[in-house]
Amino acid sequence: MTDYDLIVIGAGAVGENVADYAHKRGLSVAVVEAELVGGECSYWACMPSKALLRSGHAVAAAKRVDGAAQAVTGAVDAAKVLARRNSFTSDYQDDSQVAWLESADIALIRGHARITGEKTVEVGGETHTARAAVAVVTGSLHQLPDVPGLADAQPWGTREGTSAQQVPESLLVIGGGVAGSELATAWASLGSKVTLVARHGLLGGMEPFAGELVADAMRELGIDVRTGVNPTRVDRDEHGLVTTTLDDGTTVVTSEVLAATGRKAHTADLGLESVGLTPGDWLQVDDTMLVQGTDWLYAVGDVNHRALLTHQGKYQARAAGEAIAARAQGRPVHAEPWGAHVATADHAAVPQVTFTDPEVASVGLTEAAAREQGIDVRAVEYDLGAVAGSALQADGYTGRAKMVVDESRGVVIGVTFVGQDVAEMLHAATIAVVGEVPVDRLWHAVPAYPTMNEVWLRLLETHGRPE
């Protein structure tokens, strides 16, 4: 039996941050990992997917600037892109991540963890106890849609979609969310003939113009975008080809099929039943990430289903690590909104970038979500292509910006940008939303000219200056 103050189950980016912040406050910490230290983001999600996308974005951006366009004389080198992607995953080796844990004086226990009782974790037949807390940071898993024949056709999930070592001649992507849209864009840029099918439009839950602009751009890239259709049957033949039948009566034949239709909690085999929780469920938490009904179990990142984004998970991890240490040491816990030990931003100030081309960058509430909450909303939009900085960024720049204002308080509660290179504009919007900066004060935040950030002035002018 080995004792630590804190045991963290899951050594991905989020788990590492829980461990690091708690250890910096003086706790002894161990992390348990069944796969690669560094987790999903490092090997099968954020980093490899963006590496797959970046080269195509760079070539497309050059082609949109006269003078630079003439210098682009070839296509993207897919082999080089895949090699670069592999370099960002350290060729799927976790030596450097393990070395970081060692340097931070955090113990690593390899193997599958099962909770066997309060503050008790078993790994490989050995029992470990936590004096203060156990944190479940196991993330989420790809969820396969219930389509006849799909499972037998050996489809790609998001892991295969980010780690494949060859470009498929053709690819069907099922799902028009963030993952489906990004991976369709990535593989099309690498030369695959891509078809994307989505039950509704693309990027549901965002401002409607986001999905519309992305769909238009996908079609220009050569992607066959079909919305309002569902697969009803999938079959892989003896030659390896996949035939997908859609509910409009058409069929699509491709080399591979990728399902990107959702995630499920990675909690089915953790022993949660031993402490009265339901295996396979998302874990419900308070704002310090403490699992409801317990005083020792924490759930951080995707597994609590608050915001399935690495940066939000790491934000939660910083709060949870500090809260765990404070409680263990008998110090005050600052659990008030925006306090040091809570993840308040999860509720109304979540930033997200979809790395399609154009990019979609958003934070806070959409107009529809704000109205559903009964907020006194005024929303204004502006053509991002009409801003001088955008015209310099790319010839024929296409994009849009939207600002959602809570009129009763006079503060910005949501912003969405769609266009080339808008990801780097998002943090200013995030600060405005988190800081609840009054619209009156934003008039004095002067955007440098000529940059794309001038759209802030145009949005304010469209909204109207107070008397």
UniProtKB/TrEMBL annotation:
Residues of the FAD/NAD(P)-binding domain: 4-312
Keyword Amino-acid biosynthesis applies: no
GO MF annotation list: oxidoreductase activity
Needed cofactors: FAD
Keyword terms of this UniProt record: FAD, Flavoprotein, NAD, Oxidoreductase
Residue span, Pyridine nucleotide-disulphide oxidoreductase dimerisation domain: 350-456
Pfam families the UniProt entry points to: Pyr_redox_2 (PF07992), Pyr_redox_dim (PF02852)
EC nos: 1.-.-.-
Key word Calcium present: no
Highest taxon in the source lineage: Bacteria
Class in the EC hierarchy, top level: oxidoreductase
Record-stated family: Belongs to the class-I pyridine nucleotide-disulfide oxidoreductase family.
UniProt name for this protein: NAD(P)/FAD-dependent oxidoreductase
